[in-house]
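Quick one:
INPUT:
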């Protein structure tokens, strides 16, 4: 393997992501694993030079203080305990914290600063080939950043052993199904299967208003579609997924309650017949983009806006109706067009519209019009764990409002969301 690794075991800390990124900032790869990892599982991880038992306020789970297996304490690599079993927490000052980490990683563990995307890709290619062998992989290819980077990585590792499935569930942005086919089938020469499942998904979602239930229905139906496509193909044993670490955090860990489930984490059916291939699951969003650049993906793909797995299903708030879904799609297209015209494309990390399942009183053509409001969200972030609101010029917001209310059927009001993350999340559902 090309990279040394420091393993962070979660023993109740609220700052595991921060710690993992601090280690990577020192040039050493890091992974976060749950406290109940077995000594055998730890020994199987590649390139481990040291282990950090990262304790914290969530150390008590179901009334019991958690701990690692005794064999972890006797691991053949150095083990550092922080805020665990009476050991001191990390220093508060950034420089002191960095010094403590450096002393352990380089002085005690003897790790080398060899974390970079080229080495990460080389290691993941090797690990994918070990896992998959000569078997075939089915990948859910939405065309978003995460699935696109996974596709490129799997193509590099196993080539035509990969089959990409693009499911049009009716919850994509305007023009996206056509773009996915063009880029991946025509330009990247991927094995691509296109599935029109619009009616199937929307019928399943009819009348469902709870956002968690919607996510699970969409995620579960995705997997069912993949299973059906797999049965049409010979020898599909693995399912590729673009899971990244913020997905795992937000879906809940053994010490942290869920913020919201992600279809590729919390929505998988219990009878899943595939073994998962998730080479990006320890990366943050900015690192995924860096990986895509290193793999040679075009900028318009690498820097494409993040798009949730459930798509517009979590932006058509409450129970999804086809008319309100279309209003979300059209208002989003106007927003994206105007941001591109006004130099905000690539500057703003994520921007989109959402429509709640309520109507407000308005006036159209001189008569009362009970129609929907559109909510505009525009945020910037590095790792998707926190986010700030973009300062969009007021004149531009007025212009966008005028276009949306004039061009989008059923909309009479436009609102701008000023809430950072936290307290809000990036998505509304």
């Amino acid at each position: 393997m090309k990279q040394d690794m420091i393993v962070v075991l979660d023993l109740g800390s609220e700052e595991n992501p921060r710690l993992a990124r601090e280690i990577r900032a020192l040039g050493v790869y890091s992974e976060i694993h749950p406290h109940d990892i077995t000594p055998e599982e730890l020994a199987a991880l590649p390139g481990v030079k040291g282990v950090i038992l990262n304790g914290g306020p969530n150390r008590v789970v179901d009334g019991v203080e958690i701990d690692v297996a005794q064999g972890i304490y006797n691991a053949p690599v150095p083990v550092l305990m922080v805020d665990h079993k009476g050991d001191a927490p990390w220093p508060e000052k950034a420089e002191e914290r960095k010094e403590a980490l450096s002393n352990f990683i380089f002085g005690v563990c003897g790790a080398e600063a060899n974390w970079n995307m080229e080495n990460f890709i080389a290691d993941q290619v090797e690990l994918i080939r070990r896992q998959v062998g000569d078997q075939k992989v089915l990948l859910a290819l939405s065309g978003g950043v995460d699935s696109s980077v996974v596709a490129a990585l799997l193509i590099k590792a196993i080539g035509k052993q990969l089959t990409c499935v693009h499911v049009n569930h009716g919850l994509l942005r305007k023009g996206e199904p056509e773009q996915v086919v063009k880029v991946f089938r025509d330009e990247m020469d991927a094995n691509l299967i296109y599935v029109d499942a619009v009616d199937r998904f929307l019928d399943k979602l009819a009348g469902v208003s709870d956002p968690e239930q919607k996510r699970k229905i969409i995620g579960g139906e995705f997997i069912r579609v993949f299973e059906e496509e797999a049965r049409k193909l010979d020898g599909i044993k693995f399912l590729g997924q673009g899971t990244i670490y913020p997905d795992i955090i937000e879906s809940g860990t053994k010490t942290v309650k869920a913020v919201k489930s992600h279809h590729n984490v919390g929505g998988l059916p219990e009878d899943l017949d595939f073994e998962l291939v998730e080479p990006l699951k320890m990366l943050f969003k900015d690192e995924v983009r860096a990986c895509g650049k290193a793999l040679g993906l075009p900028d318009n793909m690498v820097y494409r806006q993040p798009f949730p797995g459930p798509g517009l299903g979590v932006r058509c708030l409450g129970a999804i109706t086809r008319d309100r879904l279309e209003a979300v799609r059209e208002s989003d297209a106007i927003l994206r067009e105007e941001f591109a015209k006004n130099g905000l494309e690539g500057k703003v990390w994520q921007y989109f519209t959402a429509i709640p399942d309520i109507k407000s009183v308005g006036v159209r053509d001189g008569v009362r019009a009970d129609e929907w409001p559109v909510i505009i969200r525009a945020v910037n972030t590095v790792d998707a764990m926190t986010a700030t609101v973009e300062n969009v010029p007021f004149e531009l917001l007025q212009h966008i409002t005028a276009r949306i209310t004039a061009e989008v059927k059923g909309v009479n009001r436009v609102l701008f969301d000023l809430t950072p993350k936290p307290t809000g999340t990036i998505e509304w559902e």
